[in-house]
Each structure stands twice: as structure tokens, then as C-alpha cells.
Specification:
three-stranded antiparallel sheet, binds zinc ion, 4 domains, binds 3-methyl-2-oxobutanoic acid
Length: 511
Amino acid sequence: MEKIIIFDTTLRDGEQSPGASLNVYEKVEIARQLEKLKVNVIEAGFPISSPEQFEAVQRISEQVKVIVAALARAKEIDIKTAYEAIKNAEKKRIHTFSSTSDFHILGKFGDEKYGSNLEEKRKTVLQMSYDAVAYAKTFCDDVEFSAEDAGRTDIGYLADIIETAIDAGATTVNIPDTTGYTMPFEFGNMIAELKRRVKNIDKAIISVHCHNDLGLAVANSISAIQNGARQVECTVNGIGERAGNASLEEIVMALNVRKDLFDFQTDIITKEIYTTSKIVSGFTGIIVQPNKAIVGENAFAHESGIHQDGMLKNRNTYEIMTPDSVGAVKTKIVLGRHSGRHGLKARLFELGYNLTEEEIDKAYKRFTEIADKKKEVYDEDLRTLMGDEFFKSDEFYHLEYLQVNAGINLIPTATVQIKIKNEIVQESSTGDGPIDAILNAIDRALKIKPKVEDYHVRSVTAGREAMGEVTIRIRSDNKSYIGKGVSTDIIEASAKAYIQAINHFSNKILS
Ligand code: KIV
Ligand code: ZN
């Protein structure tokens, strides 16, 4: 069986999802889990884009043994910075890219200095691509080149640029369908055509990177594999820009379940898929839709009587893979208020969280608070707790105090105290409901007024004592920021979620 290289870009393209913003601690935790899942390459970030990105790529490079890739535009400063961030990695890759479609070339290289017409501009991009790969090669043997918007690029020009990149030393050439525009047969033909046209193609691995704007990212990736691609770029839960990237779990399980059709294998430990999905969703705040293939809440639920009857007689009737094969085991009661620190540490480790003693102390304190309120603590509660704001060390605003009055024939009123460094600010406000009153009071205290784009509350587990998890997405300065809050009291969870979203926004301003 031939191997398909799984290049995970959750921490780079995935983190570009609206609202997702991960701190360094969270990125390192996700990278550790990706290593456990056995992806072959972790694209850890885009180091030139911010000091926080640089630090995260650097820290990940020091902690994992798999190949760490860093993204760089076809510019010397980007490439040098990418190398600086990954230089301590055991295995490293510089990933550089140029725009190749006419749309992108005309849009991004409109300036006369790149040429006075399309033909000249194309030549400039070709030369820039060669120079970028050759420069990256002076730092690192493993260099990947991507032709951005390849899906809408003229095939003759695409073949020239890929051949040039390989001549300059690229060991992987990536064909992104950046705008999610192509159809599976069309994208597959594109890969086959490149194999025919590019003379030195056998000197590099063909990679694909598909976006999901038409819901075809996974189908396009599979079609590309059938036509010669041997690396796929994907993200956990399919998160990413706009409609997202090809979903790692869907590609892997498609190849796995349909072994009868494909002679390909991946190194992925499929039983780690569910845990990885939960960790990514917990830290990014991006909820997995219930009907999402492989990792959605309902992916293995059988509701109708006919289906349940069929399943009881023979699971194969309606099940093409078992929940166990992707690690989606039924929720268990694991711990209660009498459970000790060791029990918590062991269970968190089984769930994929590798904590330091200091972090365990923090987690245990929070766990006892929850166990006191809800008696039985489930795996789901623990995962939610881990994704909760208490692990965010970069908290700038902290909710110290909250009082809410609400009811029928009563004007909803909230008072908050927020700690900002060593200072406490206090404000009160009314609203058209208790949540609105809290948000207004926080806005007053912090003298801001972000737009609330989305508000969700969900019960983490079943039962009246379940914890409530609130997710809020706010918008400010044309960007979205997600915050999550967890508590047995959804009013408190809402306030925490809002403060966390504001913290994400403030960290961006302060960094
Ligand atoms: O979608 C895209 O084209 C990208 C490249 C930078 C690989 O993310
Ligand atoms: Zn992309």
C-alpha cells in the first residue's frame, strides 16, 4: 500500500477561521495531540505575521518530533523568519508560496514594478518563486512550494511554475484549490495533467490543499490522490478560512473504510481522532456541527425505529465504521467530589491532556468547584473544563464579581466588577434581559461596544445539574473573536464568555 502523507494545517490555516484565536499554550497542547494522532507534518504557523505566531512555532518546534513546517511568502524576510522559528525542530520544513492565478497576479501584483502587462507579471512571479525556493534551500533541505489559487490557474503556466520550483529545489509541490472552486473530476485531471506536463515531477511529492467553499474539499482531495497526489493538507474538524479546509478525519476515514477501492494508507491512529476533535473544538471555541461526519455528536446516533431495529439485529445494517474505531466511546461517569488529584490527573492524561504539576493544581481546584455543584463529573465536563478560560494565562480582564436581578415585572439589572491589572472597575446597567444587562454593564466598565455576532448556550452533558457552556462571537475592527465560558450557572458562563472574547480582542491589540 502506498502512503499518503498527512500535513496538518489546523494551527495555521485552521487558526484563520473567523474568531478562532489560540494562545501559545493551547497551540502547544494541540501540537502534542497531533503528534499522538501521528500526523506526518504539523504546519505550526506563519511566523512573520506576529510575535505570538513566531513564539508558538518556536515552542512547538522544541516540543514535537514530527516535521514542523512554517509558512512564508516568497520574500526573504518571511523565509528567514520562518527558519528562525523552526531552527530547533528535529525535522523542519519551510513552506513558501506565490500567487499564480491571473486573478491573484493582477490583484496582488498590480504595481508597474512587477511588469506592465499580465505576461510580464507572470514572468516576475515565476522568478520570485524560483528565488524564494532557492533562498529557503540555503536554510533547510525540506522545502515546500505552493502555487496559491492553483485551482483557477492556467494549466500551462501552473506546469511552468511547478517545474521552476522543483528546479530550485522544492521537495514538495503543493496545488491548492484556494477558493474551493474546482469539481472533483476537474481537480483530479489537473493533478494528472501536471504529472504529464512537468518534466521533473518525479523529483518532488505532489501535495494538495483544498478549501471547502462548495463542500467539495474532501472529494477533491480524494480525487487528487487517485491521480497522483501523495500529500494532503487538511485540518481537524475541517476548520479554516471561510467554509474551511478539507477535514483530516473525513479523508483518513474515507481511505480507511474504503480499503476495497484504495491502495493507500496513512499513519494516523484513528482511535485518537475523537479526542483530537474535542481538544481542537474546546480550545478554538468552534463548535462541531452535530451532523458532522466522523466527529459530530450524531455521527453514530440511530434515531428512527427502523434504524434502531436494524442495528440491534446487525450493526453492519447502518454502520460503516464503529464509533470505537475513531475513539468516540460513550460518555462515562469518571469522577465525583471524592475523587483525588491523582484520579483527575490520570483521567485527563487518558483524554489527551499532558499537564504539568502546576497546571494539575489549577485544574484540580476548578474540578472540585464543579464536583461540589454537580456530583458526577463526566469526560465531557473535563474536556470542557480544559477548553475553558481558566487555562488562558494571558487574561487581561478578569470578572471578579457579578450580581444580576431579573424576573417577571422587573427591569433586568446587572452589576459587575472587573479586575484590570491591580485596579477594579465597577459598573451597573439595565438591559432587555439578564444577559443583555450583563453585557451592557461590562461594556460600560471597559468603555467599549463590540458587536455581538453570535451567542450559543449548550448543555455539556445530560441532566439538570449539567454544566452550561456559552460561546459568544464578537466583532470589532472588522475581525471576529470567540469567547467561551463554562459554569453550572449559564448567567455566569455568559459573562465569562463575553470577557474571554474581549480578552482575545485585547491581546491582539496589546501584542
Ligand atoms: O489556501 C491556500 O492557498 C493556502 C496556501 C498558503 C497554501 O493556504
Ligand atoms: Zn489555505
